[in-house]
Amino acid sequence: MLKLHIPQIGIFKTCRRAFATALCLGLLLAACSRPNDKIDNAVNLRQLTDEAGRTITVPETVTRFVSLAPSLTEIVYAIGAGDGLVGRTTYCNYPPEAQRVEAVGDTLKPSIERIIALRPQVVFVSTASQLEAFTNELAAHQIAVYVTDSHDLEGVFRSIERIADLLKRRSQAAELLRQLRARVAAVEEKVKLRPPVRVFYQVSDEPLYTIGRDAFITDLIRRAGGISVTADVPGAWPKYSAESALAAKPEAIVLPTGGSMGNANSNVASALRGSPAVANGRVYKINDDHLSRPGPRSVDGLEELARALHPEVFTK
Amino acid sequence: MIMDLNEATGNERAFHGIDESRVTLSRTFIVCVLLLLTLLLVIVLMSLLGSEKLPAPASLCALLTFGKSSCGLTADQHAILFDIRLPRILLGAAVGGSLAVAGASYQSLLRNPLAEPYLLGISNGAAVGTMIALVFLGAHEWSRPLMAFSGALIATLVVYRLAQGRTGATPERLILSGVIVTTFLSSAIVFVTTLMDATRIRSFTFWLLGDLSGSTTKLLWLALFIAVAGTIVLAAHARSLNLLMLGERDAFDLGVEVARVRLVVFIVASLLVGSSVASSGSVGYVGLVVPHLVRLSLGSDNRITLPAAAICGAMFVVVADTIARTVIAPRELPVGAITALIGAPLFVYLLRRR
Prior knowledge:
The complex is a heterodimer of chains A (about 325) and B (about 350). Chain A has about 325 residues and is α/β, with parallel strands linked by helices. Chain A has twelve helices and ten strands. A four-stranded parallel beta sheet of chain A has the order 4-3-5-6. In chain A, strands 8-7-9-10 form a four-stranded parallel beta sheet. In chain A, α5 packs antiparallel against α6 and α6 (about 170-190) packs parallel to α11 (about 300-310). Chain B is globular, with a radius of gyration of 21 Å. Residues about 1-20 of chain B have low confidence and may be disordered.
């Protein structure tokens, strides 16, 4: 009997200890979470939908945020909201004052610990970087994630508008967009009567990568009075067949290079050396920071593209 | 001893004796000629397929005249066929041949059916060498194959040394050392990749999976030369490798200069792996699947296995790459994905059929 009882007492003791521990932990958690609840209740919250269709909840006034894409950093500075930027990626090098902001890693591997330590209210992410798991983890820490998703220039403008809406910079954004749209209209006016130039956009030469249907640069080329020979290829950044690139007979080849990525990609892929573009000397190196970042400087890229494709209408 | 050997290699013919040897020699010759003709046929047929449709009769005619006559092809079509498609196919042949013959000789030398450039970490060694050349030396023409070769050789020697325990190398120890070296080098690759800029990472990961699209003419000729010369040198050591399959001590007793043969195989196989990785990244599975397929169908006498593995490896990669460049055309897949996708089930099928 006695021998039977002892283990029962042991189990009871263990249970009690476990219960006590759980109770303590629970109280501790409650104690910890209480101040947070108060803060959350203190501020007014609002709900909005981001460009990936997710519903997010943000404070009425957002004063601390992190940008995880160079294009998004450029957008927040362009609408005059740079003061609230508390974290950026190592690639965010423009405008120069952005470099004074703490870096939280690159676009592919941001440091989640550092982001949480910075206590942002919102983190801005571009769809290009697949940060699904990452988004969930931030959500667990009451940090809202706003995802941008632009496939054309109009989409870039929409991103600017909605980020400005979130950060309460509507009037600055309206002014910025008015200027940008005027510049776009000026370019389109100049090239509208010119026959479109067939363009091959070389993302990298070895292996050969180009832009597809979903890349916003495809739209940029169209507005600049050109037509991307790979405009119908599925995806945004497809690896492309060298023989198809040559067979498309591009009249011009655009090499995005010379920006913050240095001089990589400054040579035409060997397969395209026999293309009409090379034969006629129509290979254009354009700053990749302007072309590959869907932000306000995309319009600089558009102007540079149009100048390259239709020099005749810009010299006058 | 000779009886043992025959059992071990599964070949009915004796290795000594003039008559038998002559039979094997003529058999090797016939098999090789037949396989070479098949390879030629495969190369011609695969040249007719691609993301761009070329008129088949005209292309065939142009191929048969080695491009001297245009046969009604336009200048663009001619350029596609001879400047883009054919060099890529030839590179595929060189890479496939190199990897398969290197795998076959590692398997004999190390007496391990799992010995393969990819599994032993030798491909990764060559990849790290190539990456260092790309990132730090910036050069493409000669530093790349040279560094790839050095990387492959260092990885081979490290794996071999690690495998040598106090009791000698056991098959398990060898594979374990291969796994260790592979893992270590993989982390080295990840480390160097993080030092690269964002745009190059994507193209680099593609290259790591094996990609035949972006190579220069110089690298192509180098790869072809090394593939042919390497196969000849290794095939010339086929008899020693046959004896080595009995064990190093027995081979030594039978008059094989074990240390010299081992050194030759290590250097030549490293050259083969290095040149193929430098021009096309790490194409996996070829060095494992092809030699075994050849052994299953032709027996394991290295005098036949080595040249036959080289030719079949060439065919395998040429066909796999044709699939890679046509199946989602005009987009492309890495050839390494296709070799693994075909190789693994094929291997399982043959293994179960035996």
